[in-house]
């Protein structure tokens, strides 16, 4: 089964310093900035990856060893 998770990358700018801000509205804190739209987008996606990876690692430690589980691989692509 393949079911994509669809998120949004929103943009603002450029600001007075020339930077563009990008963020993922569905995930508070997932944002980045760059001199170009592509750079800002890459930074926001990297922040999203970092946030999810850290959160998943914390939760993984809380799964009891005897608990029935299976791996789920989430691929973030753009």
**pLDDT averaged residue by residue:** 83
- Helices and strands, in order, run as EEEH
- Known CATH architecture: 2-Layer Sandwich
Query: What structural class do helix, strand and pairing data support?
Result: alpha+beta
**Number of beta strands:** 3
User: How many domains comprise the coordinates?
Assistant: 1
Gross morphology is elongated
Main sheet specs: 3 strands, antiparallel
What does this molecule look like?
The chain has a three-stranded antiparallel β-sheet with strand order 1-2-3, covered by helices on one side. A hairpin with a 7-residue loop joins strand 1 (about 10) and strand 2. The chain has one helix and three strands, in the order βββα. The protein has a single domain (about 1-55, about 70-78), classed as Double Stranded RNA Binding Domain. With about 80 residues, it is α+β, with helices and mostly antiparallel strands. It has one helix spanning about 35-60; strands at about 10, 20-25, 30-35.
């Amino acid at each position: 089964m393949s079911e994509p998770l669809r998120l949004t990358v929103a943009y603002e700018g450029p600001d007075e310093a020339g930077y563009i801000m990008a963020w993922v509205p569905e995930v508070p804190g997932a944002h980045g900035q760059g001199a170009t739209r592509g750079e800002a987008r890459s930074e926001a996606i990297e922040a999203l990856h970092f946030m999810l990876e850290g959160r998943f690692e914390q939760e993984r430690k809380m799964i009891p060893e005897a608990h029935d589980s299976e791996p789920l691989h989430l691929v973030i692509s753009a």
